[in-house]
Amino acid sequence: MTFKEEILQGIPDRLPPPKGRSDQFSHAPRRKQVLSPAEKKLALRNALRYFKPEWHAELAPEFAQELQEYGRIYMYRFMPEHPIHARPIEDYPANCTEAAAIQLMIQNNLDPEVAQHPQELITYGGNGAVFQNWAQYRLCMKYLAEMNEDQSLHMYSGHPMGLFPSAPGSPRVVVTNGMMIPNHSKPADWDKYNALGVTQYGQMTAGSYMYIGPQGIVHGTTITVMNALRKILKPGESGGGKLFLTAGLGGMSGAQPKAGNIAGCLSVCAEINPHAAEKRHAQGWVDELIRDMDELIYRVKELTAQKAVRSLAFIGNVVDVWERFADEGIHVHLGSDQTSLHLPYSGGYYPAGLSFEESNQMMKEDPIRFEEKVQESLRRQVEAINRHSSMGTYFFDYGNAFLLESKRAGAAVGTSDQKEFRYPSYVQDILGPLCFDFGFGPFRWVCASGKPSDLEKTDAIAARVLEKLIQEAPEEIQQQMQDNLNWIQQAGENKLVVGSQARILYADAVGRIAIAQAFNDAIEKGEIGPVVLGRDHHDVSGTDSPYRETSNIYDGSQFTADMAIHNVIGDSFRGASWVSIHNGGGVGWGEVINGGFGLVLDGSEQASKRLQSMLFYDVNNGVARRSWARNPNARLAIEREMERSPGLRVQLPHLVAEEHLNQF
Asked: In which pathway does it act (predicted)?
């Protein structure tokens, strides 16, 4: 059976033979057993409804075994025969370009070179799922292959509810993930309802089909590390030999060593999972693998003395590294953490004192004891970080819920009055005031032809646009513009592509629209093939997250989610090809609401109109909200935008003198 035939088949007509998990892939942790016997029956009933009754007798015990062994029903038997990776757009069976592009993006998310746990349909973060099971994958791809421009596919947490009549200007796909009733949005609720097969954690770009491998975060990490270095370096001093210590080499966190190299420092990234570290080393994202602590100590001292720019992956626990470096007197200039602490007890964080295998076993067999070990480890880690901080280390929370979970574990992360964290979020100190408030965020694109030559051409187009815009840019954003111009000019030589032919750079609304229009013009002229536009939800407008994206908003609205909801609704009727809204993300289930989009450029006049309207709103929705929160840089940005755009009218806040507030 050909690739196209298998896609169009959907659920097979004949029951395929059983399939086991492959040892060549990293697998999701075995989830703890959280369902009662009655709920397990319900989970089984929910899984079997995808298949005709004559198969139930054979599938029921198999699915029950999966649920018992793994805590979830993945339906391994129904994994497709075709290899999963981003193909050229013309290889997909489809009745419209947008549907083919979405198939491409879904397959890129599940490409074993890209995905963290591909056979469990998890792209990154330990639980960031594209689908809950393989039946959903098969049905979704079949619906996309059959869809026309008068239909829209509605996705309920991985489940394709079906094709509904719509209109050519409507989104082709509407995606929701984990949209729980608020009183049922605790981490334990995710465990239960995901096990039942009725919801999933879409992370930020996994469940919205917009993940582009570790490159997707390497740019933001590079900007973060670069500006963190600027905080500690003396004028004219380079970052060579300045030590950046962090943890995590999985999906998103795998970008850290590459970002350290580009930013020009010495980085050490600890990773407890050997497979994850070896994968990043094989892909060229980290320079050296080290398994022995004494060897790590020697190598760091040697490279520090040489003022080297180099990335080291230590296969072991980062807590041990923090403690040993303190004992050895090794000065850590920058410190952070990017383990998946939004999922602290289900494989997102591995505690010190246990091996990778021991942790996975305890996680399943003794979850209460495992939680105690995680909390004990977090207290140890914070104690060691505090030792380094007292000696001058600049530590920042990188939006993975490290400070939040450490506080919950009783670690000493509070200020003297315990009202705030003693360490800033990177958004509070760096990305918020420098980027988000000015409308700069992670704009990305994918060359749907699959041709590296198309990506090279889009890099050159983007560079030309930025070179022109930087000449007209106000002083406040000159540094951001120059950083991004340098980034795109060096992107090819930095070998950032994993999976699809994709690129990312930080741009504001003016930059995004200008770059996108230039792409659409090039497509119309036949210079390049179709291009898919998107962004990380980690942006100025798409995400309401009080401990990350909106942590530099101080009017109290950081705990509201109006912006993200308006973002996805506003994008949907301004031309997005697909839209998505999720509960959860990098900081955890119940802690964030984030929205995203995809927009397909095909060189048409209609695509030009869509990109102008949708990208303008997608950015300025967030800038306006940040201005209303009295963020000064956002006010400058929205006032400048109103001067450029007569149709835009935004309410500006009046500032109040402190003397009028002393009434209580």
From this structure: Amino-acid degradation; L-histidine degradation into L-glutamate; N-formimidoyl-L-glutamate from L-histidine: step 2/3
What confidence tier does 326 reach under pLDDT thresholds 50, 70, 90?
very high
Query: Could you identify the residue written with the tokens 């929160």?
Result: 629
Asked whether residue 125 is marked as a ligand-binding residue, the answer is yes
State whether residue 664 is helix, strand or coil: coil
- The mean of the pLDDT values for the chain is 94
Q: Does domain 433-556+598-659 have CATH number 3.90.550.10?
A: no
Given a cut of 70, is residue 286 above it in pLDDT?
yes
Q: Is 10 annotated as a binding residue?
A: no
Contact 129, 206 (CB under 8 A): yes
Q: Is 586 annotated as a binding residue?
A: yes
**Is pLDDT of 131 > 60?**
yes
Would you say residue 418 has pLDDT above 60? no
Helices (H), 473-550: 478-490, 509-524
Q: What percent of the chain has pLDDT over 70?
A: 99
Instruction: For residues 595 and 208, give the distance between their C-alpha atoms in angstroms, rounded to a whole number.
Output: 9
Residues 7 and 145 sit within 8 Å (Cβ to Cβ): yes
Q: Does residue 250 have a pLDDT over 90?
A: no
pTM for the complete prediction?
Answer: 0.90
- C-alpha dist (Å) from residue 583 to 372, 430, 567, 589: 27, 25, 14, 6
Euclidean distance between CA atoms 564 and 540, whole angstroms: 10
The pLDDT, as a whole number, for residue 251 is: 66
The set of residues, in sequence order, having a beta carbon less than 8 Å from that of 235 and lying 6+ positions away, is: none
Which secondary-structure segment (H or E) carries 581?
Answer: strand 578-583
Q: Which CATH class is domain 3-196?
A: alpha beta
Residue type, 182: P
In the chain, where are the structural domains located?
3-196, 214-413, 433-556+598-659
Q: Is 398 annotated as contributing to ligand binding?
A: yes
Domains 3-196 and 433-556+598-659 share a fold: yes
* CATH tag, 214-413: 3.40.50.10730
Residue showing tokens 């080291």: 312
> For residues 461 and 468, what is the distance between their CA atoms, to the nearest angstrom?
11
The length of the chain, given as a count of residues: 664
Rg (Cα) of the chain, in Å, rounded?
24
Nearest-CA neighbor of 221 among 538, 587, 489, 571?
538
264 is in an annotated binding site: no
pLDDT tier at 98, thresholds 50, 70, 90: very high
